[in-house]
Fold:
Amino acid sequence: MNPPRPIELLAPARNAEIAIEAIKHGADAIYMGAVSHGARSAAGNSISDIARVVEYAHRYLVKVYVTVNTIVYNHETESVRRLIHELYHAGVDALIVQDMSILRMDIPPISLHASTQCDIRTVAKAEFLARAGFSQLVLARELSLEEMAEIHSRVDVPLEAFVHGALCVSYSGDCQAGYATMGRSANRGECPQICRHKFDLTDASGKKLIEGKHLLSLRDLNRSAHLEAMMKAGISSFKIEGRLKDAAYVKNVVAAYRQLIDGIIDANPELYRRASIGHTSLSFTPDLDKSFNRGYTDYFTSGPRPTVKMASIDTPKWIGQPVGKVISSSHRGVKVRLSTPVANGDGLGYFNDMHLFQGFRVNRIDNDIIHPVQPLAITPGTTLYRNHDHIHSGMMESDTARRTIDISFMLRPIPHGAALDISDCHGHSASVSIAIDMDKARTPQNDARRDVLTKTGDTIYSVKSISDTLGQVFIPKSTLASLRREAISALEKSIRASYSYDYRRKEDKSAVLPSAQLTYHDNIANGIAGTFYRDHGAQSIAPAIETSSEKPESGRCVMTTRYCLRREMNRCRRTPEGALWPDELYLQSGPMKLRLTFDCTNCRMHVHTTK
Structure:
């Protein structure tokens, strides 16, 4: 029988403080950005801050991954190489990368993970990257359970998949829309998020079929109901999106998934185990609906042609949870019929008569009269939503979790003194001793010694059992307390000494690319990456569009999506309603105009530039 597979809850961190909070709330691994070349340029961290996170994380056997997952220009390869050396010496466990030049750089043997920016949507791509030297593969968010399982059956490296957070409408890594339209590239960490823009949908003549909607804005991913199915499909690392999110978001979402994953592991100990150590105690009840979201979707988890809606076309904002309906409004306030209590300081919102989402802050509330900061005129019957819970937010700003490691002590006599053995439930142990006179005590000592040994204070350890065979011997409390501190220090050294790194896999030079013809969709931006691809069978290579100073020509496909606007709006060509829309469709947002084409055989939508 195979040993239980380690299951990893992977949490985002904008900075060191949030990383530590994620660990306290139950993360098995952290991913964060370095000073440069991360796919979220606004979430960079210094080497010293990353080293501080590593120091904290490794006490719990929590891993730290750093994103170096942008494409790299020729003039940057040396600085990236130096950065990787610094990250390796800081103790980082792995790098999450997109650019294949890193596989050929003179770098330490640090583990490399293939980023979601590598666009791993096929078995062939996964097989190639596993053979190329990657230790973990981050699968495309668009994959179904069946597709995940198929990839798992064909590769011998752990698979990572997103389970929660914002969704890119395009296959990640295969989106040039931001650069083509606004000069800001997602593959360089500068995505302008045009998918959150408001668009008109028009035909070739300019006739508006839909006006002023966020037609490319997806709801947030939530696979909390599919975790066990994903484990069965072969997913080992469960990734939460959100390297720009605040601490309250990370705390709540990590804690929620920790509880769900632990429940599955506890029910299947022969199949799965925790990837790190330590038990988290919370001062709050996690609730995914309490954190920012655009409404939830499980996307394509259940299959390639879902029948439920997956876009948030009315607003890209968080509307929150419904709290009641408006009865009337006047200069005196908004009279409401509440379905849940509202507090002073709450943030509420509603859709106005133009179906635009408006928000306001509750200044005070008297029974069923809400007093906004400014008077509002809201149509009776309008639903109010709360997207800022003042009480909950205040609570989340406090110290909301403690993560401890259960330990056991054994106090025993040795010649001319006493020894204190310490162990945790994960196989780590240490022993310290002291030479003392074994003076006989006048009164029983077991309870007094137990009191001293259990006082672990602000350490990360919690004493679960004590075996005391010392007998009726007197040891001063100060001496025993010192022995306890030495034992804990020795255990920490034992845990760190036994810490295991997953070093880089060897590149299989015989691995052949799935396609010998590489286009700008493959994001090749430097000569080292070009050499890598040619060595693996590339016959022609087109450079990434970011390497050109010229604007991409009209008609270029800059986004490929599994999300289909026709299907979302009940105009799928496979149905009679599809004939209600013409074949030629355009998205217009101010001066930005994009043409849509539809690959109905493969159920894909393509977005193209226009003049």
Q: What stands out?
A: The chain has a mean pLDDT of 95. The longest strand covers residues 401-414.
